[in-house]
Amino acid sequence: MNRAHTKTRGFTIVELAVVIAVIALLATVSVVGYSAWQRDIAKDVLKADLTAATAQLKSDLNWNNTYPENEEAANGGKGLPKSKGTSYTYSRTAINRYCLIATSDQEGVPTLVVSSDDTTPREGECPAPYIQTITTATCPTTRTLAVDARDNHTYYIQKLGEGANARCWMLTNLAYAGGGTNTYNDTIPTGDGTNGTLHGPDNSGSTTYTLAKYYIPTGANPTTNPTQPSTDTTGGGSGAGRQYGYLYNWCAAMGAQNGGPKPSTSACANATTPAPNTTVSICPANWRLPTYSPTNEFTLLNNAVNSASTTTDAGLRSEWLAQRSGYWLNGFDYQSSVGRHWSSTQYSATSAYYLYFSGSNINPSVSSYKSSGYAVRCVAS
Predict the structure, then answer these.
(1) Whole-prediction pTM value?
(2) What distance in Å separates the CA atoms of residue 244 and residue 236, rounded to the nearest whole number?
(3) CB 106 within 8 Å of CB 39
């Protein structure tokens, strides 16, 4: 009797290779999907931690009228709430201002941030500090954005110079017109020429040294948080990079010290006595106008960033971001050609010292009529 034989066909090498490749692909997809899921979970944990921490910080502010000085001081010394695997970087930039960054130990999870300005967890950086919270001791040595709490106009600041000659400078011209919030008790009242107020902008009027006046040239370009000011280093020609700020007569630059809420001094009078208060100015709190005497701070600046040159303002433009904003003298003159910045030192009853610069001439020791409208750069006290 004949028997039927059945031949069983096995997998070929190619087929086995295909199967193995498919299995590997599925495994990879599973691992990638699982890792993405883990990252999403870790990011949600960060969000939850920051939400809880924000609530605790708000509670601390309500109880103590200030945010905690550091993370460990929160919640009566118990610290901020957080999950295992979460770490915080906390900074208080003012009694009513903070920034909190959360980082996960899970690889690939982005850091998240909240602040007193925005309590919704997000990716990004801490907002710029208020310029009023910066001091000479805490001034950054790299160009840094800061916000004027009065009106949210933004400026670059940086410590320039070495040792005892170092100063913390505004790197962009002041563009403050009075008023705004008064968190730091540094607002200049607004008005129309009465004592203690700013008069202007009156871009078609005459000059005066007894009323605090300001003028707004084309290219003033004041910016508000979070818009950053220009870093133009051409001197401020005709392009969008101009950052001229406002122009002030000396009375306005010195904070309208002619009565009202300010002491009456020669800052807004045809006199040299009583001497102006050099700690009072239109600058933000903890900042002031540069001095000519007893130390000429414009000379220190020119030595530090311009190699003490008297023939080129290249260093001033590249490091101090100097803008040739011209001046006001019954009209705007010499925009993009020269720069003039007030000091807090008067020369006579009708004139005060200032810094002059152009592409071919630097003079930190010149004086001019207090009625002229010049730019203002402040230094930290």
Answers:
(1) 0.78
(2) 8
(3) yes
